[in-house]
Specification:
Elements: H1 5-16, E1 18-19, H2 21-25, H3 32-39, E2 43-47, E3 50-53, H4 62-70, E4 75-76, H5 78-84, E5 95-100, E6 113-118, H6 121-124, E7 127-132, E8 135-140, H7 142-151, H8 153-156, H9 158-170, H10 184-192, H11 195-204
Parallel strand pairs: 5-6
Antiparallel strand pairs: 1-3, 2-3, 4-5, 7-8
Length: 208
C-alpha cells in the first residue's frame, strides 16, 4: 500500500531529525507539510529553512549541524574546528565557516556565524566529513586547522595559533615526522603559503 504524503513526511522527520525544504522537495513531498507539522508541534523551526523534530535528541554539535544544513558546501574551520578537535582552550560563541570566495553571504538567523573566504585547494584540502543528527558536517582536519590558524592569525590571534600547534604536537597527531614534504603540516602549509610563518615555531618545538 502506498504511503500518503503525510506518512512520508513523518517518516523523513523521524529518520533525519533535522530537515529542510530541499529534503521534502527531493522526495516530492509538498513543502507546506513543514509548516503543517510545525503547527502540530511535531517540528520546531530552529533556523531559517531548518526544522528540528521536537522528539529528536540534539547533540553538542547541534550548532554545527544547523549551519551545515543551511550551507552544505561550507566547511567548519578555525576556532570551531579547533574546538571540534580539542586543540584549544578558547571558546567561540560563533560558528566559523569557510566558504568559496565571491560566494553569496548565506542568510542564517542563528547561531551566529563568522565567515571566512577561501578558494581552490585552501578550501578543499584537508576536509573531513562527519555525521551528526543525520546531517553531514564538513570540518577541516586537525593538521589543516592548525595551518589555517597561522594563515588567519590576524583573525584568531597569534597565541591561538601557537596553542593549537603545541596541542597538536602533544597529542602526537604529528606522528614524530620531520618537517618536510611527507608531513601533513608541511603539505597544508605549502598549500596555504605559510611555510615561512610556521617554521620558527616548529623550530621552537624542535620539529625542524
Amino acid at each position: 500500500m502506498n504511503k500518503t504524503k503525510l506518512e512520508q513526511a513523518l517518516e523523513l522527520v523521524h529518520s533525519r531529525g533535522v530537515v529542510a525544504p530541499k529534503d521534502f522537495e527531493s522526495r516530492n513531498i509538498p513543502v507546506s507539510y513543514l509548516q503543517r507539522l510545525e503547527r502540530q508541534g511535531i517540528l520546531m523551526r530552529s533556523n531559517r529553512g531548518v526544522y528540528t523534530s521536537m522528539e529528536y535528541d540534539v547533540t553538542e554539535k547541534h550548532s554545527l549541524v544547523e549551519v551545515c544544513k543551511r550551507v552544505p558546501n561550507g566547511v567548519i574551520c578555525l576556532l570551531s574546528a579547533l574546538q571540534f578537535h580539542q586543540l584549544t582552550t578558547q571558546w567561540s560563541w560563533q560558528v566559523w565557516l569557510a566558504i568559496q570566495n565571491k560566494a553569496h553571504r548565506p542568510k542564517i538567523d542563528r547561531p551566529p556565524v563568522q565567515l571566512v573566504y577561501m578558494s581552490g585547494e585552501a578550501l578543499t584540502a584537508g576536509v573531513e566529513s562527519h555525521k551528526f543528527e543525520g546531517v553531514t558536517v564538513r570540518v577541516t582536519s586537525a593538521a589543516k586547522t592548525v595551518v589555517d590558524c597561522f594563515k588567519f592569525r590576524h583573525k584568531v590571534g597569534q597565541d591561538v595559533a601557537m596553542e593549537a600547534l603545541r596541542d597538536y604536537l602533544q597529542q602526537r597527531r604529528y606522528l614524530n615526522e620531520k618537517w618536510g614534504p611527507r608531513s601533513e603540516l608541511h603539505h597544508y602549509a605549502k598549500i596555504c603559503r605559510v611555510e615561512n610563518a610556521m617554521k620558527p615555531y616548529l623550530k621552537a618545538f624542535s620539529i625542524c
